[in-house]
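Entry for the shared binder. Reason: the reviewer on the internal report wants the predicted structure included alongside the sequence.
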Amino acid sequence: MIRILFIFLIILGSVWLGVFLKQDPGYILVAIHHWTFETTFLVGTASIMIAFALLHGLLLLIHWFTHLPTSWQGWLARRRIRKAQATTRKGLIEFSEGHWLAAKNHLIKALPDTDAPLLNYLTAARAAQEMGDNKLRDDYLRQAQQSMPEAKIAVELTQAQLQLANQQWEQALATLRHLQDLAPRHPYVLKLLMHLYQEVKDWRQLISLLPELKQHRVISAQEFLTLQQHAYLQAMLDLIKLDQEDPLTDLVNQLPKNLVYDVELLSAYSGYLLTKNKDTNVELLLRKALTKQFDDQWIELYGQTKTKEDQLAFAESFIKKQPRSAALFLCLGRLSRAHQLWGKAKKYFEQSLEFNKTPAAYLELGTLLEQLNDPTGACLAYREGLLLHR
């Protein structure tokens, strides 16, 4: 609205000036020595404006000529940058399409004029690895760090990723530990370390890393619990395989609260202790665990311990709550046989087989029938058990 009013006032003023000059055009007189110049006000004003415009144009032309070399150099520089950007885009597209050599060549070609050399170097390093040239890859990574020293963490993270992908475990570990010194709380560094320890099956190192993974929320809560259980289980299985009882016991004593009564962990440890004839330790462990929660693996292992007179009564206390548990009745049969309660043992083994036919139950029944001088029944039980293995 203000603009329209302003234009209207200019037009009104122009009309008034035109009418005024028509009535009295006025004149301009210029005298220099014996020279005089006289004209109307309108012509004189127009002449001055034309002269000013010509002078301004001449000054602009002189300025353009004097700055022509600089302008030309600027135009060439902008052209080179645009060309480098186009070459970089082409290289990135080729990298995405899997044309590693072409991508690497275009990305390196664009380097002298690109404004983001880090991206070119890092992508070229990835392309070099895909080509199987690790030396060239490391060379590009080194140049990337030199081109942008403040991007040291980004470059070394890329290096660690490529080393992991290339299964260069020792080099990747060295890189990641250096990164951990530079950025102790960096979530991605911790995540790559986690993957590395999983790949090389270094469960003790992974266990030591677990608190940091949890503190910095590197993985979700559920993923953490799964990883935690897996790491401790694999560490235990490794120690069991190597028959290292004391380190295994130390590891079990250091278990987090949420894993103290983990089914797989406690079953693995109890099974190992049974091979060492430490029935008393196993009975105490499993009795405490079973009072907290019932589990088929635990009750079956409990039946293999022979230490206390009240074991059978303790196991029979679960019949009402677990009336269809084949593992429970297998346990009861074993304990009954250990107490020389032959008829009770036979009944429990047969009940176990009613709920689930397993080779272990058939073996126990066959062994019992042999003790009871029933070779025919024993042979039939052994036969049925063997058929299940087919």
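Summary line for the report: Residues 180-254 form one domain.
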